[in-house]
């Protein structure tokens, strides 16, 4: 668990332990607000909030492509360029921006990793321990949506049936 709050980090998303710049909404692990964005006690909680929000987009709003997700995540109305952002994320994931996603733990982690360079500086991305992303996803306690560590530190992924994923994601509290 990384805590960048008192490290002198100049990147706000890193300094706030919020690498995807999640808006404050009373999240678990949220300890403050910086502008409209949450400050988390550590990056694991920041990644948990991001994973929760992405699953909500997928399950509750039916956003199943990179372009659909990014258009809501970083809307043009807020001064963002969602087309370029979406193309960047899709390219990093090695898929098309309009390809249908299946939101399992591996895809969720890949999506978070691909989104970070659009949210924080490259030098900040390099400081992120990817096991914190795994821990944030695992912290959601969704049966089967667990990232399993193998001997090499990454390992396989246990997949969850679509029915359980939808039911638990919708019932999960912030």
State the main characteristics.
2 strands, 8 helices, 174 residues, two-stranded antiparallel ribbon, globular, mainly alpha
Note the quaternary state here.
single chain
SSE order, one letter for each helix or strand: HEEHHHHHHH
- Biggest sheet strand order reads 1-2
Shape: globular
SSE blueprint:
Elements: H1 12-15, E1 30-34, E2 37-40, H2 43-61, H3 66-73, H4 82-93, H5 105-119, H6 122-125, H7 130-139, H8 162-171
Antiparallel strand pairs: 1-2
State the gist of this model.
The chain is mainly alpha-helical and 174 residues long.
Structure description:
The chain is mostly helical and 174 residues long. It has one domain (46-171). Helices cover 47% and strands 5% of the residues. It is built from eight helices and two strands; from the N terminus they run αββααααααα. The chain has helices at 12-15, 43-61, 66-73, 82-93, 105-119, 122-125, 130-139, 162-171, and strands at residues 30-34, 37-40. Strands 1-2 form a two-stranded antiparallel ribbon. Strand 1 and strand 2 form a beta hairpin. The longest helix is centred in the first third of the chain and has 19 residues, at 43-61. The protein starts with 11 loop residues before the first helix and ends with a helix.
